[in-house]
């Protein structure tokens, strides 16, 4: 069967491929530790789940406006604005089933065939997929480990030009856990103004930052809100991946276009889910802080454990729940190393190349898992790698 060129390039996310192989091994009786899927291991807090159930019982089971219910848009405008130090009008808020539609639909609304789009590499695989579906030209900018996996700004300066339509940034980042500095954001913002580009700022991990760090948002820089789409949601911060609830914040004229794309595709976001989201934002926040504290503790154990394995070096990530260790000193590709660790150490993790070519030489490890599993995984990995040659 032949397919349209706009979908021919699509491929599965690496995480699901590794998960499938790990499950095969489990079916054959192996005890696998799963550090491949990027989702919180915590359950949604009971007060949020109960609100979802109550909303169903109360009949919140109908079609609702494509951009979401007004109460939730208002609450998001207030909360997201306060966290970033900006003023947001509810008309700028577009609610979607998960954050992903607020990546994909702005891409469809803004990118014309032949437009260039700069995005982080290694980066979340949906970026390249959506750029290509929209007919744009993907222009990966390498991230630099020494700069906390922020953009290689020299490369960025060489890549941006009059054909650049959109710049995608993601901080804290998947797969690296890196946080972009305010100086780097200013640099990118100046370039976006000079070349009149849009910015898509994926801030889904903003609440998950460590050591008291306040993650800066490019949207708060002077004059940037009018050319920025902030993407955020409930999946990571509130452990609500399966509820499918996210949002975008953008200029109202663009929000109207996205509203139309939602109308003609998904129709709207589930009705009752949005009441659960409202409870998540307006209810107690202490449990979010507790989850972040737990991630930080796990990060510390994982990073010091990784750095004590000869041949591995790992920068301390400042956000999200990903570690991105370098395995360059072994004579194996990322793919070979991830396979070896799965097959011999029974630990599922991802090669850096699942996130782009500049991920070669790295692995992605998810530490949204118990301390016990993390310690056991470290021991297993250490044992397997101790017999390998290093350069
Ligand atoms: N953006 C990044 C960087 C992510 O890592 C993810 C999920 O893994 C998403 C967006 C998508 O979030 P959601 O599950 O709410 O669609």
Overall mean pLDDT score? 97
**What is the domain tally?**
2
Query: What percent of the residues sit in helical stretches (DSSP H or I)?
Result: 40-55%
Instruction: State the CATH topology of the largest domain.
Output: Aspartate Aminotransferase, domain 2
Oligomer: single chain
Structural class: alpha/beta
Shape: globular
Supply the CATH class of the largest domain: Alpha Beta
From the alpha-carbon coordinates, what is the Rg to the nearest angstrom? 21 Å
Sequence of strands across the biggest β-sheet: 2-9-8-7-6-3-4-5
Terminal Cα span: 47 Å
Strand content: 5-15%
Largest sheet: 8 strands, mixed
Number-wise, the strands total 13
Low-pLDDT segments, ≥5 res:
none
Q: What is the CATH-assigned architecture of the largest domain?
A: 3-Layer(aba) Sandwich
Number of helical elements? 13
The kinds of small molecule bound in this structure are: pyridoxal-5'-phosphate
CATH superfamily caption of the largest domain = Type I PLP-dependent aspartate aminotransferase-like (Major domain)
Topology order in helix (H) and strand (E) letters: HHEHHEHEHEEHEHEEEHHHEHEEEH
């Amino acid at each position: 069967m032949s397919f349209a060129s706009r979908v021919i390039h699509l491929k599965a996310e690496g995480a699901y491929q590794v998960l499938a192989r790990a499950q095969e091994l489990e079916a054959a009786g192996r005890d696998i530790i799963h550090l491949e899927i990027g989702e919180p291991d915590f359950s949604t807090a009971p007060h949020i789940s109960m609100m979802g159930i109550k909303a169903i019982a109360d009949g919140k089971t109908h079609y609702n406006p494509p951009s979401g219910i007004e109460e939730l848009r208002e609450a998001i405008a207030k909360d997201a604005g306060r966290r970033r130090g900006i003023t947001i009008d509810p008309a700028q808020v577009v609610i979607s089933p998960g954050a992903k539609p607020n990546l994909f639909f702005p891409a469809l609304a803004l990118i014309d065939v032949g437009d260039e789009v700069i995005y982080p590499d290694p980066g979340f695989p949906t970026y390249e997929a959506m750029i290509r579906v929209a007919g744009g030209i993907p222009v990966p900018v390498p991230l630099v480990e020494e700069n906390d996996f922020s953009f290689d700004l020299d490369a960025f300066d060489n890549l941006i030009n009059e054909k650049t339509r959109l710049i995608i940034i993601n901080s804290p980042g998947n797969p690296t856990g890196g946080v972009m500095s305010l100086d780097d954001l200013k640099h990118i913002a100046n370039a976006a103004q000079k070349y009149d580009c849009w910015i898509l700022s994926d801030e889904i991990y903003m609440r998950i930052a460590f050591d008291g760090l306040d993650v800066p948002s490019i949207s708060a820089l002077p004059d940037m809100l009018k050319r920025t789409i902030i993407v955020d949601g409930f999946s990571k911060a509130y452990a609500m991946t399966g509820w499918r609830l996210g949002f975008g914040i953008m200029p109202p004229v663009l929000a109207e276009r996205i509203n139309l794309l939602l109308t003609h595709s998904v129709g709207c976001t589930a009705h009752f889910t949005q009441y659960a989201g409202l409870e998540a934002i307006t209810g107690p926040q202490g449990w979010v802080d507790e989850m972040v504290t737990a991630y930080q503790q796990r990060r510390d154990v994982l990073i010091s454990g990784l750095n004590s394995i000869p041949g591995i070096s790992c920068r301390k990530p400042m956000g999200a729940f990903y570690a991105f260790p370098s395995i360059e000193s072994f004579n194996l590709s990322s793919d070979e190393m991830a396979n070896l660790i799965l097959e011999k150490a029974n630990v599922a993790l991802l090669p850096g190349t699942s996130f782009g070519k500049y991920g070669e030489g790295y692995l992605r490890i998810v530490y949204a898992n118990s301390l016990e599993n993390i310690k056991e995984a470290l021991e297993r990995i250490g044992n397997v790698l101790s017999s390998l040659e290093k350069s």
